[in-house]
Amino acid sequence: MAGRDQFNSIVTDIERRLSSFYGFTRKALACDHLVTFEELKSALELEKFTPVNRDDRESGVFLIPEKSNNDLFIGIYFSDEVIDTLSKQSPEESLTNANLDAFCVLVEELSHFHLLLNRINDQKATSHLELEWQGEVDKMLMAATILQEKEGDPHVVQLMRMIYDHALITDVHRRDLYWEATRFAAKFWLDQISLSRNLSRLIQSSDLRRLLKHLYEASWQQKLEVFSKQLERKAS
Asked: Pick from 102, 121, 138: which is nearest to 20 by CA?
């Protein structure tokens, strides 16, 4: 129970950070939608459900229409390994190589969860690529923010290498999509690093926050247009 309480505290902290940074009101609390493996199977009405491969699948946000009405079931699943790692090595205390992977899994799924809810609330469409890009961007944003607070430096270059250069894609069915999202996210942060005059203050930059808030609301096509302009600015 203590481990679960600690994990829930971390979940609450990260979604608070995301909502505060992007300026959205939380339409639901993630802790109210955390599900176990058995609960997920029941919601999907599958006796032998395995999310891709249970040994490989660390997490997932599941959006399922309910047959009896127009409501949606939305559940967030995390493996015992992710929960155990973060409960024992809380990023609220220290973010290191030992818990960075689990932390990134947590951030990515919370990013998906809230972007989905925000798009549904605003009656806007979103693509799988956009969801994955946002999750990849938010991994870096949240990790760098915590390191800035704990150590006075976001360590953006080191995080870039750890999060993007060492990324492994285990879902063979959507490998190309995940790599494309990772590539776009890595390119975004590389551009921000190259344009920054002070890397130790990059995450605290009002320009970065303004840009990311704009991109959060933008469609994928609008995002691509911004990326193109950023490239032109860098070239000049």
From this structure: 138
Q: How far apart are CA 87 and CA 90, in angstroms?
A: 6
pLDDT at 87: 95
* Alpha-carbon radius of gyration of the chain: 18
Alpha carbons within 13 A on the beta-carbon side of 38: 0
Buried b / exposed e over 164-181, threshold 16 CB at 10 Å, is beebeeeeeeeeebbeeb
- Mean pLDDT across 199-222: 95
Question: pLDDT tens digit string along 17-64?
Answer: 999 999 999 999 999 999 988 887 777 765 444 443 333 456 889 877
SS3 category, 34: strand
Output DSSP code: residue 199. Answer: G
Q: Write out pLDDT tens, residues 132-177.
A: 999 999 999 999 999 999 999 999 999 999 999 876 665 556 778 8
**Neighbour-count burial for 31-60, b at 16+ CB within 10 Å, e otherwise:** eebbbebeebbebeeeeeeebeeeeeebbb
The helix/strand/coil state of 58 is coil
Residue 108 sits at φ, ψ, to 5 deg, of -60, -45
Cβ atoms of 34 and 78 within 8 Å: the answer is: yes
